[in-house]
Design brief:
It is a single chain. The chain has a nine-stranded mixed β-sheet with strand order 5-4-1-6-7-8-11-10-9, sandwiched between helices. Strands 22-21-20-19-18-27-28-29 form an eight-stranded mixed β-sheet, with helices on both faces. A six-stranded parallel β-sheet has the order 14-13-12-15-16-17, with helices on both faces. It has 724 residues and is α/β, with parallel strands linked by helices. The mean pLDDT is 93. Helix 9 (238-246) packs across helix 14. Strand 21 and strand 22 (571-572) form a beta hairpin. The structure holds GDP-alpha-D-glucose. GDP-alpha-D-glucose binds at residues 28-30, 164-165, 234, 270, 272, 305, 307, 348-349, 351, 354, 371-376, 379.
């Protein structure tokens, strides 16, 4: 039976050396809890670094055995790996870049090499355990290359990736020299998850611009499959925090702590030591509050827990010193014999004490400058079982998208934050309660277990969707069937679209002329079948490109037809009324003026606005604007506006390829029909084909055609088979 493998940089246990022995300390983190039900069941397993270096082979063997009992497998990292891969590339390149701290980004090729090397170590460790149809769920920014490494070896595996930190805008990602490899690495997945819609949007935009892969409605079109990108805001183990806060143990600690701090209103802040968390900024705000509101002296205190983290990295060392100084300054300036403004702890606390802090505090001040999600704010809400208390939350935390009943602040707006604390201190109990209840309801519903379920359900859905598409992909069996039917037919016909079907796209449409290979295919096919090139191109271009070939041509989606048997040249198939063009052209020209790179193509029955050469993103934006503008105009003239591959076309609705193809077939008895096309204009052809026709759409889009095929190269290969 297929199993699930969870992979993260750190295992949910920490390996500690003690008196020449080692022991494992389980992580109490939300992720470990949420995924507990997954990795602990059946043959499933969690693979990762146990968090300490072990060089001795005997010790390693022992650790492997012990972890096996816990349903885990280690990836051992050397001291150098830890320095260059973890502290280096992960925490000095990716972490600052992804949190918009560009001033801290280190660009070190040696760190990058180590990042590749360690991702490969993870891949090798997984491959030792994985079967081809397993599900592998990779976590976070330390392992961005891993999904592709796995996909290359296990093409059919189910691979998912979730990023716990923000995904920044394209403007930041493009700064990293290795951006393309990083994005392609993630795109080895079937499902890519982020905490927020903005992260997902940034990722899709970066993939489009950097790798060239297009996407629609959260689906990236990779070369041979679709990849779903979606937002999955992570929850907490709500029940655990609620239960702990109510427990006798925690309430006893609360009573004890309260005795020590007296009647002061308590403002709680808890973070890992990190510049993204905005700790010094928060201290400046608290200083400002005390400076401007003497009435609060002796009445409020801040409990500040900073959990040591990455303290070997220079920027973290400096941050620690800055915090120490600021706390010292506030306390030196304002404390009295019976009042300390900031209770500062540079250490972690056991869970029941953490719970007591949450439970006893009046305000939680959670003001990161950037945070993927932030679980502290959610844990505070879950712990306020008497529904009092106020959450002040930064708009820059992913959680702010969900916890809209918090008092939301911009962490760069010092005065705004001072005002928010003042507002929170003055907030009436009824208002506190109504905000708290609404946040609790939401967090209870979308807890960590629900998050895991929704994520894995989505993964299953993506795999089903991929399977549907794959079942329609032209494979060797279908090719053989088409070949046999074609070769035994006495009167076959082929309807072949041109751009995207017989040839690739070029920035300048006039450069996409047929090459020698294509000319030879068409030449060799035409004695064996009726070949119809059916295109949106203008008749003069098609006529020039296929001059001397024994084929039929349909130009401009069916306005013009040229039959090989006729001496008449191009015949007009549809009456053209172009009285509408002048007004529509004016509008299109206005959009050309505003959009460098855009241009208009005029055809007999239509006007086409091209934006292939426009800066990516801007082209889409302008196309959307023009689309709604033209749609409004179109109804008055009875015209149709259609979106194509980097074009917007406006034309008469009764002219389409399907109608032209039917007219071409009229009066003939064909015993083999094949139609191939790559965009929406070809859907009309597919719809018009007889039931027994073979219809094939290039690319993996949903279609009326019976089959999909990867690209124009495979179309050429198929046609070559028919000639053999
Ligand atoms: C990354 C992303 C995203 C803190 N002090 C103590 C303690 N903690 C626990 C909290 C909380 C966790 O640490 C911190 O989680 P955050 O989410 O706030 O922040 P990161 O560590 O930066 O996490 C973040 C998260 O991944 C999940 O996807 O939300 O945006 O940066 O659970 O409770 N626990 C104990 N004692 C302490 O003193 N026991």
């Amino acid at each position: 039976m297929a199993k699930t493998i969870i992979v993260s940089n750190r295992l949910p246990v920490s390996l500690r050396h003690r008196n020449n022995r080692f022991e494992f300390k389980p992580s109490a983190g939300g992720l470990a809890t949420g995924l507990g039900s997954i990795y602990k069941s059946g043959e499933n397993i969690w693979i990762g670094w146990p968090g300490n270096t072990v060089e001795d082979p005997e010790q390693r063997a022992e650790i492997i055995l012990e972890l096996h009992e816990l349903k885990m497998a280690p990836v051992f990292l050397s001291k150098e790996d830890v320095e260059q891969f973890y502290e280096g590339f992960s925490n000095e390149t990716l972490w600052p870049a992804f949190h918009y701290f560009t001033q801290y980004i280190v660009y070190n090729p040696e760190h990058w090499e180590a990042y590749i090397r360690v991702n490969q170590l993870f891949c090798d460790a997984i491959l030792k355990k994985a079967d081809p149809d397993d599900t592998i769920w990779v976590h976070d920014y330390q392992l961005l290359l891993l999904p592709k490494m796995l996909r290359d070896v296990l093409p059919n595996a189910t691979i998912a990736f979730f990023q716990h930190i923000p995904f920044p805008s394209y403007e930041i990602i493009r700064m990293i020299p290795w951006r393309k490899e990083l994005l392609e690495g993630v795109c080895g997945s079937d499902l890519v998850g982020f905490h927020t819609y903005d992260d997902m949007r940034h990722f899709l935009s970066a993939v489009g611009r950097i790798t060239g892969m297009t996407s629609e409605s959260g689906y990236i079109q990779a070369e041979n499959r679709i990849i779903n990108v979606d937002s999955f805001p992570m929850g907490i183990d709500y029940g655990k925090f609620e239960k702990q806060a109510k427990s006798k143990r925690t309430q006893k600690i609360v009573k004890n702590f309260k005795n020590q701090v007296g009647d002061s209103k308590l403002i709680l802040t808890i973070d890992r030591l990190d510049y993204s968390k905005g700790i010094p900024q928060r201290l400046h705000v608290f200083y400002e509050l005390l400076k401007n509101h003497k009435d609060l002296h002796g009445k409020i205190s801040m409990i500040m827990v900073v959990v040591p983290s990455r303290d070997k990295v220079q920027s973290y060392k400096e941050l620690k010193e800055e915090i120490d100084l600021l706390v010292g300054r506030i306390n030196a300036e304002y404390s009295t014999l019976n009042w300390i403004p900031v209770h500062y702890f540079y250490r972690g606390f056991p869970f029941e004490e953490l719970s007591a802090f949450y439970s006893m505090s009046d305000i939680a001040l959670v003001t990161p400058l950037r945070d993927g999600m932030n679980l502290v704010c959610k844990e505070f809400v879950a712990s306020k079982t008497d529904q009092t208390g106020v959450l002040i939350l930064s708009e820059m935390a992913g959680a702010s998208k969900e916890l809209i009943d918090a008092v939301l602040v911009n962490p760069n707006d010092k005065q705004g934050m001072v005002d928010a604390i003042y507002q929170a201190l003055a907030m009436k109990p009824e208002e506190q309660k109504s905000r708290m209840v609404s946040m609790q309801e939401s967090l209870k519903k979308y807890d960590i277990f629900q998050w895991v379920k929704v994520y894995l359900d989505r993964l299953e859905h993506v795999k089903k969707k991929q399977a549907e598409l794959i079942s329609r992909v032209v494979d060797t069996k279908i090719i053989q069937e088409i070949e046999e039917k074609f070769k035994s037919a006495s009167n076959p016909v082929l309807f072949l679209d041109y751009d995207g079907t017989l040839t690739g796209f070029k920035a300048n449409p006039q450069d996409a002329k047929p090459d020698a290979e294509l000319k030879s295919i068409v030449k060799n096919l035409s004695p064996k079948a009726q070949v119809v090139i059916i295109s949106g191109r203008d008749k003069d271009t098609l006529g020039k490109w296929f001059k001397g070939q024994e084929i039929d041509m349909i130009a401009e989606h069916g306005v013009w037809v040229m039959r090989k048997s006729s001496k008449e040249g191009w015949e007009l198939y549809a009456e053209v009324d172009d009285s509408w063009k002048e007004e529509i052209r004016k509008i299109m020209e206005y959009y050309v003026l505003r959009t460098p790179g855009a241009f208009i193509e005029e055809k007999h029955h239509s006007l086409v606005w091209h934006y292939r050469k426009v800066e990516s993103g801007l082209g889409d934006l302008r196309m959307r604007e023009l689309f709604s503008h033209l749609k409004y105009m179109a109804s008055g003239y009875n015209l149709q506006v259609l979106e194509g591959n980097m074009v917007l076309e406006i034309k008469r609705p009764d002219i389409n390829k399907g109608r032209a193809a039917v007219a071409m077939m009229k009066g003939n008895e064909y015993d083999f029909v094949l139609a191939i096309g790559d965009d929406w204009t070809d859907e009309d052809t597919f719809k018009a084909m007889p039931k027994n026709a073979y219809t094939i759409r290039v690319g993996y889009a949903y279609t009326q055609a019976n089959y999909n095929i990867k690209s124009f190269r495979q179309v050429r290969d198929l046609l070559k088979k028919l000639i053999e």
